[in-house]
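User: Some background: our group keeps a shared notebook of sequences we're curious about, and every so often someone picks one and asks for a predicted structure to add to the entry. Today it's my turn. The entry only has the sequence so far, pasted here. Could you supply the structure so I can complete it?
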Amino acid sequence: MDEWVTLTELHDAYLNCKHRKGNTEACAIFESNLSRNLIQLHRELNNGTYQIGYSNAFCVTRPKAREVFAAEFRDRIVHHLLIMRTLAIFEDTFIDDTYNCRAGKGTSYGHQRMLEMANEYADGWVLCCDVKSCFPSIRKTQLADELEEFLVTNYHGKDLKQVVWLTRM
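Assistant: Of course. Here's the predicted structure to add to the notebook entry:
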């Protein structure tokens, strides 16, 4: 078995995932057999048999009504593994005022930047909006194709084939 993911990397991805979701029931269940679960996930990733689990679908009403699909905890670990591998190439493409899911650039940072810009451009406008049903309307195959093209062009790790495989999943 060619090892493209080490147990140490997988454990680091687990710790990153736990940082945000550590107080959830799903995390507690995964942790109840942590070593066994990480070893199993490690084996599946390295031998190419990993499969995405079922998402938990639910509705929320605040700040507005919407449907949410939450990945299983073990799949979230894989998400964090992918982020650990590819974040640098994505960061290089973002403008400074892109805030979502970026370290040190959360809501507070965005609010502070908006206040700075409001002071700088006193006659300007601020638009706060949401595009209705944006994510459900995205064509998944087209997104996967564009992500694969981006990775092939910009990602230079020896594990490109595996990163593309996981990204397409």
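Suggested note for the entry: The mean pLDDT is 89. The beta strands are 56-60, 66-70.
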